[in-house]
Amino acid sequence: MKARDCLNLYFQDAVKEYWELPAFTDFGGITLTYKDVARKIAKLHLLYEAAGIRPGDKVVLCSKNNSMWCVAFIGTLAYGAVIVPILPDFKSDNIQHLINHSEAKLAIIDENIWEDLNPESMPTLLGALSVTTSTSSSANAIPTASHQTMSYITLTLKTNSALSATLQDLQDSPRE
């Protein structure tokens, strides 16, 4: 059995056993249950598939630690992609260099960090997702229905309408 399979089985068992219990909490912010995490990971996997991300492809994760960072980290590993964590405290030129050096195909990144990067000089990058956990008022992001979602940053290069439509479908609906 592969180590990836063991990790996936371990997480699947935890989700089943603790479905309604809290999994991640942001200080003074949101709390995600195991159910929420499982659903977000499933949506992330659909997004990866729609974007053409394959197991073994590299995905950058550059964000302050929060619940969505954890979802992105676990979801990327469970998908079989290679996670490339980059500290958000790095200067933008260093972040851009690391993205290029890693040959990442996707960046999951804070919007304020993305705004300081030059997408045209990152040729392997297909797009970027925001891990911002509050509703964005930025004109550069698709509005979200929930403050607990990863939203697509439309400033990314090499996107297509099919991918944008898929991303819209992946948005979380408001909780009742």
Give an overview of the whole structure.
- 40% of the residues lie in helices and 15% in strands.
- The protein is of the alpha/beta class and 176 residues long.
- The protein has a five-stranded mixed sheet with strand order 4-3-5-6-7, sandwiched between helices.
- Mean pLDDT is 77; it is low at 133-171.
In short:
This protein is of the alpha/beta class.
Secondary structure: number of strands: 7
Structural class given helices, strands, pairing?
alpha/beta
Strand content: 5-15%
Average pLDDT number: 77
- Helix content range of the residues, please? 40-55%
Q: Please identify the oligomeric state.
A: single chain
Spans of 5+ residues with little confidence (pLDDT < 50)?
Answer: 133-171
Any idea what the shape is? Answer: globular
Strand order, biggest sheet?
4-3-5-6-7
Write the layout of secondary structure elements.
Blueprint: H1 3-17, E1 22-25, E2 31-33, H2 34-51, E3 58-62, H3 67-79, E4 82-85, H4 92-102, E5 106-109, H5 111-114, E6 127-130, E7 151-152, H6 161-170
Parallel strand pairs: 3-4, 3-5, 5-6
Antiparallel strand pairs: 1-2, 6-7
Helix pairs in contact: 1-2, 2-3, 2-6
Descriptive labels:
176 residues; alpha/beta; five-stranded mixed β-sheet; two-stranded antiparallel ribbon; 40% helix
